[in-house]
Write a structure and sequence with these properties.
422 residues, alpha/beta, Rossmann fold, 2 domains, six-stranded parallel beta sheet, 17 helices, 38% helix, elongated
């Protein structure tokens, strides 16, 4: 059932790049907030992840669909002053610069809360705004390793540690950031006071990982090497069940018997696993195997690849893919947020904007500035025009003394291809 957007009327300034901050902004946008991405050309590294089409990569569109975009040079005093003016008319600010950067730029919490006491500000970082490791660079793989995820998986697999093929720490942190922002907005409604939210990716992973309690109590489990993926007709299949429960259900429902009742410990698990594997492989039809697993009350799953993922019956039936404007007269697919309201709407309302595309629109509506005032801000260098002049590289502009301390890699030229700004 369609209905109003839950966050209609909420204004957000999203200063973040990559995933851990922009994903929060994307969720807020789909829920109805007006989210304005404050971006400098070349500083969002997701623009080089995957093929680009009409000026954007697929990942950039996924994280920034529906947002408006202005290009403010926070490295100038005039740019910082302009942002502070905008903050007086906003509800939420999101940033994921390295700790200390926004304070040096004059747009940290003390400066912004002085302008707007009801402001909610979310700062996302790898290891928190303070502490012995607060200054470390921290991308998702760094946090995966430090939070114990990679080490545990290596122990389970009996292999060398290897990163997961997903920016899990970024996404997990963003979900926690969303909860924190909504909670702070609710509190601001009750008290009239804003909040500063210091959210670390490291802590978000520890709080979300359901195996962290083993480290708390120094009870490190030895996982039986039974595995959960089995060879089956039509290709491998995943069976998800505790090994003891799986064995019990298959014995009671399908008559499997213990090959060596005298075996104990790991030997028992290994012997039973071989029996289960032989039982699964013995089916000639995949549908018959699935029917047998369902009869035993055992969960199973197809092992989908990127090529087959969207063939999922659930993905098709629940229309998890939305089409947004590709900025060239066509559309581009993005994944919908999973919030299904009985009487509300959550939906991407536009594609990804170009850098600086809404300079005049946002400043006109939020600050009532006319065309000449916007042009003056561009002449002062506070506002970067949507059509950047050619011939100046990201490296030259943003690694200069006093430039941005962004999340760019060590070699800024790897962030974007050298091309005219579009």
């Amino acid at each position: 059932m369609a209905g109003p957007f839950p966050l209609d009327g909420v204004r957000v300034l999203d200063l973040s790049r990559a995933i851990s901050g922009p994903y929060v902004g994307r969720m807020l946008s789909d829920l109805g907030a007006e989210v304005v991405k404050v971006e400098v050309p070349g500083t969002d590294i997701t623009q080089v992840f995957g093929p680009r089409s009409h000026g954007h990569s697929g990942l950039y569109v996924q994280q920034n669909a529906g947002k408006r975009n202005i290009s403010v040079d926070l490295g100038t005093e005039a740019g910082a002053a302009l942002l502070r003016e905008l903050v007086a008319h906003t509800d939420v600010v999101i940033e994921n610069f390295r700790p200390g950067t926004v304070d040096r730029l004059g747009v940290g919490w003390p400066a912004l809360s002085a302008v707007n006491p009801r402001l909610v500000m979310l700062s996302v970082s790898g290891f928190g705004q303070w502490g012995p490791e607060s200054g470390r660079q921290a991308y998702a793989p760094v946090v995966h390793a430090e939070s114990g995820l990679l080490g545990r998986q290596a122990e389970v697999d009996g292999a060398r540690p290897n990163d997961v093929v997903m920016a899990l720490a970024d996404s997990v942190t963003s979900l926690h950031g969303m909860v924190a922002v909504l909670s702070a907005l609710r509190l601001a409604e009750r008290t009239g006071a804003g909040q500063y939210l210091d959210l670390s990716m490291f802590e978000a992973m520890l709080a979300t990982d359901d195996y962290t309690h083993y480290s708390l109590e120094h009870t490190y489990p030895v996982f039986p090497a039974t595995g959960s993926v089995f060879d089956a007709p039509g290709g491998p299949i995943l069976i998800s069940a505790d090994p003891k429960y799986l064995w019990y259900r298959l014995c009671s429902q399908h008559g499997l018997t213990d090959p060596d009742p005298s075996a104990t410990g790991a030997a028992k698990f290994a012997a039973r696993a071989r029996v289960v594997a032989d039982w699964v492989a013995g089916f000639t039809e995949r549908s018959a195997l699935i029917e047998a697993l369902e009869a035993a009350g055992v969960a199973w799953a197809e092992i989908r690849t990127p090529a087959t993922l969207m063939d999922s019956p659930t993905a098709i039936a629940r229309q998890v893919v939305a089409q947004v404007d590709n900025r060239d007269g066509g559309t581009r697919p993005v994944i919908r947020m999973p919030y299904r309201f009985s009487a509300g709407t959550c939906e991407p309302r536009a594609g990804a904007a170009f850098v600086g595309e809404h300079n005049a629109d946002v400043l006109g509506r939020w600050l009532r500035l006319g065309a000449e005032a916007v042009a003056e801000l561009e002449r002062d260098g506070a506002l970067l025009p949507a059509d950047m002049p050619a011939g100046r590289t990201v490296a030259e502009r943003y690694t200069a003394p006093g430039g941005h301390d962004s999340m760019l890699p060590a070699d800024p030229d790897t962030v974007v291809e050298e091309r005219p700004w579009t």
